Amino acid sequence: MVTSFQGVIPLAYVDPIRIVVWNSRWNSPCHCLVVSTSIFLRGFLVVRRKTSQSLVVSNNPPESPYAPGFGFTPPYLAGRDAVLAQIKRALDQGPRSPWYIHGISGDRGVGKTSLLNAIEVHAAKAGWSVVSLQVVPGEPQIHTLARDLVSAATSTWGKAAAFLKDIDIELTVGVDLKVAKAEAKLSGKPGVGKPPSIVLRDILIAVGSYAKDQGGGVLITIDEAHEWNTAGEIAALASALQLVVKRKNFPIAVYFAGLLNLSTVFEGAGTFLERMGIEELHVLTPESTRLALIEPATEKGIRFDREAVDLLIAGCEGYPYLVQLAGNFSWQEMNGSVIDLAAATKGLAKARIEVEKLYSDRWEKLTVLERAYVHSVARLGEDPTTSDVAKSLKRTQQQLGTTRDALINEHRLLRATQRGHISLALPGFGSWVTAQPRVRTSAPARVKKAK
Ligand SMILES: Nc1ncnc2c1ncn2[C@@H]1O[C@H](COP(=O)(O)OP(=O)(O)OP(=O)(O)O)[C@@H](O)[C@H]1O
Ligand SMILES: [Mg+2]
């Protein structure tokens, strides 16, 4: 029985003599909060002053906990326990673990950035210095990485500032660090002074050795890494990491996240990054979807009816972005402190409209031939071959080469899954596309037969 309380209480129900509140801790109604003079609206009781005598009531429901948006950390990171545990173990084990430098790949909106965020939170809590980089296509990254490493190290370890403060002019790794003296010039502009790989190597040695002395580490996350195309930079990073992490064993862990073609970025670099493990993230299982929906609500004292949650699980097909949208819209439709079937039905419909906007925005940007290509991939089912797609469009693969490349690299709607196979990169897009009218293309140019 609550005798003294202050805060927001969701009501399970009200009868003439009792108010029954939802106890989120035990996930069950908690009886017998008797109030003599009060008003209660929309299922919420807000106790403004700590008292058992008079309760002041407002009708503000708690804010939705869901996070529908790319790069928005979900309130409950569902279905990623195994991979997160693996990474946490690697951070404990040190540079020899194969998970210490690792890739994370997956389709759009499947939760790569959210996982990186979770790793960062874990590392920061353990006192590590954290650097997060998001690759911008065509822009050099090494200089940004070098600069961010210095500023993250100095803000994590106050004393590091003393030896890193002149890094913009000159980096000297000296006596304090008990490592060989190394010098590098970082002029403030990329490409000037020493080669980036040398500057980066020396900075990594400096912060890595400092971190080791502190009993901590440095975490580098590189998001959208499939976009990294600035010549020579990956090789520069790889050679620096090879020396500093693999050979000298300094505690610098690196995680790359990107679309499913992530591994191609490292191809031909001739380095250990080519053989780096890449974990593919998939859509959420029904059970993980259930947790992603229910856990944040329970935290706030709100519950789902069973049919409501079942409807959302079936409707979201495990697509994390849609799960957050559906949770959010259902929340807005809730009845008292319960998300019932009616609320979930409306919520899911609104969420679908939102996702379809995303699909149609992408669709609008395509040429007729690109649409026909995507339509054909969607129609042919999982993982068709490019030659089947070409046949269905009555063209040769060569004639469709530019179209396919644009859909992979520019629009990011397709991905090459294995040699000669292709599939859609955006979860749920296939069923939306097949519901669109079939695209008619003009007659293909005739291919001259070789004599
Ligand atoms: N494990 C999860 N459980 C619940 N919700 C999740 C999970 N992972 C991601 N989400 C939600 O899904 C949405 C997309 O997540 P995120 O931005 O991390 O995806 P992404 O793979 O990085 O997308 P992109 O390819 O566009 O960069 C966000 O709203 C996020 O809160
Ligand atoms: Mg992302």
Describe this structure in words.
By secondary structure, the protein is of the alpha/beta class. It folds into 4 domains: 5-51, no CATH class; 81-280, 3-Layer(aba) Sandwich (Rossmann fold); 286-362, Helicase, Ruva Protein, domain 3; 365-434, Winged helix-like DNA-binding domain superfamily/Winged helix DNA-binding domain (Arc Repressor Mutant, subunit A, Orthogonal Bundle). The chain has 15 helices and 15 strands. It has a 5-stranded parallel β-sheet, with helices on both faces. Strands 3-2-1-4 form a 4-stranded antiparallel β-sheet, with no helix packed on it. A two-stranded antiparallel sheet has the order 7-8. Strand 14 and strand 15 (422-424) form a beta hairpin. The model is unreliable at 12-20, 22-43, 46-58, 168-192 and 447-451 (pLDDT under 50). The structure holds adenosine-5'-triphosphate (ATP) and magnesium ion. Magnesium ion is lined by residues 70-71, 112-113, 223.
Strand-and-helix sequence, N→C?
EEEEHEHEHHEEHEHEHEHEHHEHHHHEEH
Strands in their spatial order, largest beta sheet: 6-9-10-5-11
Fraction of residues in β-strands: 15-25%
Determine the CATH topology of the largest domain: Rossmann fold
- What does the overall shape look like? flat
Give the distinct bound molecules: adenosine-5'-triphosphate, magnesium ion
